[in-house]
């Protein structure tokens, strides 16, 4: 049962045309007439019939249409203009400052196997909920219909997607973050043989409606529904909603040939003007944008579609065309290229949930700039020292405050981002907020061990999920977006990176990254980072040289570690910084008990799922046994110069 078509009851292009005539003027009727695919027309018509907007705007992506949407967002109050030209502010409700995981569901039939980390709702109950909530929800509003590609037009892994919404903020964001493909949409749907559908309404945008907010993913019909919410992670369903469908496609349709990952894509500079492309996973809020910007040329900071090309290389494209980035701790020292966009004229930016001062200038925690004593932020009027009902200080900006901008605004943006053939990707990294266990960088000895690094990410919870706290597992930093069984996803990872079609010269370097290690974890007394955020440039540079066999390494039970001499040289070359041996020893000593505890955490958690590939347990068991033997020989803390490898 297709819920949208069941509720709308429109079953033919002829019936769809009758609906269009009721809600569209001649201009928009002419625009929709260029979309010939019958199923596209039927789904748009059913959305109109169900939501009952006063009128429908077909967005072609022209500059005139973009201006109309932006102006309507200001007129409606979804956004407000700021002092800098083309900058606007959007505030989400105080109770919706992140993904509403507790109200996000997969629509399922009895017997459907979905991720053990997700929530499910029976199809019949979802039909009733969606029907009751979306019926007439757009009365008095304008529905905006956008036609987008999640990836460059013509790429084998790009996915066409409809974004249907009453929110001008959502539509404005889509124009910055995705490729409007109105002129190519029909032929791309035919070429790919499918398209995603996203239906959203903010409703009345009231706090009292938030308990009834919902996000649904219907995998069977590749359709998302969202209502009574505005945070982009819950409403711009082209993003994480459709990412789930892309994961499904990689796991269940093209297993071993394609992947859809929660990864940045960046070019790492090497000797002789060489650029080596790297993709890296990290949970939201764990520095993924910062790491993406550490490269010399930039393709994306959040999502990646990848496949094995005919030449035996792994190729990657960014399904997005912009950045929806967390701004907390973004500052001139660590993020100069991003700050140039945020603090200088000439670029379009949508700000969310930051502080706006009396001069209409945005401010946020960690920007290392003078901060105002008062202003307006995500919870209303704010002044220094203001506390919430529990007496806790209210920060100047929410930890999940964001900036939305086109990637082309960045000085290091690469035109390769629009290449349908993707970039040849040699390095893959996996990281999280790990304060006390793993070293800053380590490389798997083979692809299977690399898959295990991704499977074993552990990270402190961040503000991207409402109500999240503590330290938790974050497999591949993609777990919230894996719709099916985790074992199926893991099997797809082993099959992809171990695919014999990958040429020897293009074998992936798969590594762990961790630049959240603290002084306290290595004998100090503070929670300051053991190093600096900008050091990631060096870790990436070392991986780039490793990919080209230009550095040596120390073999250990967890993988290969860099040698001090190589890092000392790279620190001076890359960021003009001294790198003392004492810091190297702290960062790269193996704290064996911590690592064994981490392995046992993973073994216990994965043992609960009978479908996890046995290969994972074999690799973890081997690592643990080798660590136990190393501890017996060298002690519980082993410095790099005391490692046998």
Give me some keywords for this one.
single chain; 645 residues; alpha+beta; 9-stranded mixed β-sheet; 19 helices; 31% helix; globular
Verbal overview:
It is a single chain. Strands 1, 4, 5, 6, 7, 8, 9, 10 and 11 form a nine-stranded mixed sheet that branches. Strands 12, 13, 14, 15, 16, 17, 25, 26 and 29 form a nine-stranded mixed sheet that branches. Strands 2-3-19-24-18 form a five-stranded mixed sheet, covered by helices on one side. Helices cover 31% and strands 22% of the residues. It is of the alpha+beta class. Strand 2 and strand 3 form a beta hairpin. It contains 19 helices and 33 strands. About 1% of the residues have low confidence.
What is this entry, summarized?
By secondary structure, this protein is an alpha+beta fold.
The N- to C-terminal Cα distance equals 59 Å
Main sheet record: 9 strands, mixed
Low-pLDDT parts are 462-469
Q: What fraction strand?
A: 15-25%
Helix count from the secondary structure assignment: 19
**Multimeric state of these chains?**
single chain
Radius of gyration: 25 Å
How would you state the average pLDDT, rounded?
Answer: 94
Helix content: 25-40%
Structural class: alpha+beta
Query: Shape, please?
Result: globular
């Amino acid at each position: 049962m297709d819920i949208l078509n069941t509720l709308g009851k429109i079953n033919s292009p002829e019936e769809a045309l009758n609906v269009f005539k009721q809600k569209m003027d001649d201009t928009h009727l002419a625009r929709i007439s260029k979309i010939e695919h019958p199923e596209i027309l039927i789904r748009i018509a059913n959305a109109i019939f169900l939501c009952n907007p006063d009128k429908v705007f077909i967005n072609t992506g022209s500059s005139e249409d973009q201006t109309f949407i932006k102006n309507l967002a200001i007129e409606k109050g979804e956004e407000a203009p700021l002092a800098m030209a083309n900058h606007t502010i959007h505030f989400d409700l105080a109770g919706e400052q992140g993904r509403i995981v507790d109200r996000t569901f997969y629509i399922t039939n009895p017997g459907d196997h979905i991720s053990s980390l997700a929530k499910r709702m029976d199809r019949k109950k979802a039909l009733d909920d969606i029907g009751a909530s979306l019926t007439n929800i757009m009365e008095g509003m304008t529905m905006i219909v956008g036609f987008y590609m999640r990836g460059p037009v013509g790429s084998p892994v790009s996915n066409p997607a409809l974004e249907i919404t009453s929110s001008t903020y959502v539509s404005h964001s889509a124009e910055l973050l995705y490729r409007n493909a109105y002129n190519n949409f029909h032929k791309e749907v035919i070429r790919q043989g499918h398209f995603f559908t996203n239906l959203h309404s903010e409703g009345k945008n009231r706090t009292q409606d938030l308990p009834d907010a919902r996000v649904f993913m219907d995998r069977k019909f590749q359709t998302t529904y969202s209502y009574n919410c505005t945070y982009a992670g819950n409403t711009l369903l082209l993003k994480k909603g459709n990412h789930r469908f892309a994961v499904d496609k990689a796991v269940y349709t093209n297993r071993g040939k394609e992947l859809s990952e929660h990864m940045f894509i960046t070019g790492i500079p090497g000797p002789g003007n060489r650029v080596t492309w790297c993709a890296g996973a990290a949970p939201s809020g764990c520095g993924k944008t910062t790491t993406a910007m550490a490269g010399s040329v930039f393709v994306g900071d959040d999502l990646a579609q990848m496949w094995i090309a005919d030449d035996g290389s792994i190729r990657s494209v960014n399904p997005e065309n912009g950045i929806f980035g967390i701004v907390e701790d973004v500052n001139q020292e660590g993020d100069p290229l991003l700050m140039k966009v945020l603090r200088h004229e000439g670029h379009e930016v949508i700000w969310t949930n930051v502080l706006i001062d009396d001069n209409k200038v945005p401010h946020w925690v960690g920007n290392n700039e003078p901060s105002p004593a008062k202003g307006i932020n995500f919870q209303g009027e704010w002044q220094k020292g203001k506390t919430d009902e529990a007496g806790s200080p209210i920060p100047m900006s929410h930890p999940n405050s964001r900036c939305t901008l086109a990637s082309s605004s960045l000085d290091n943006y690469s035109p390769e981002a629009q290449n349908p053939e993707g970039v040849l990707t040699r390095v893959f990294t996996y990281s999280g907020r790990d304060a006390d266990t793993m070293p800053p960088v380590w490389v798997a000895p083979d692809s299977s061990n690399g898959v295990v690094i991704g499977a074993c990410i552990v990270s402190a919870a961040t503000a991207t999920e409402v109500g999240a706290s503590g330290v938790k597992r974050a497999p591949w930093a993609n777990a919230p977006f894996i719709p099916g069984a985790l074992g199926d996803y893991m099997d797809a990872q082993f099959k992809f990176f171990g695919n014999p079609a990958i040429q020897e010269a293009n074998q992936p370097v798969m590594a762990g990254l961790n630049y959240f290690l603290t002084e306290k974890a290595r004998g100090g007394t503070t929670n300051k980072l053991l190093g600096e955020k900008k050091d990631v440039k060096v870790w990436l540079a070392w991986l780039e040289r490793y990919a080209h066999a230009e550095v040596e390494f120390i073999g250990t039970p967890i993988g290969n570690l860099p040698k001090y001499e190589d890092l000392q040289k790279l620190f001076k070359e890359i960021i003009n910084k001294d790198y003392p041996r004492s810091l190297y020893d702290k960062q790269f000593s193996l704290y064996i008990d911590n690592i064994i505890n981490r392995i046992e955490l993973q073994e216990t958690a994965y043992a609960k799922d009978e479908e996890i590939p046995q290969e994972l347990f074999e690799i973890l068991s081997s690592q643990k046994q080798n660590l136990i033997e190393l501890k017996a020989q060298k002690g519980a803390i082993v410095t790099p110069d005391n490692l046998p490898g």
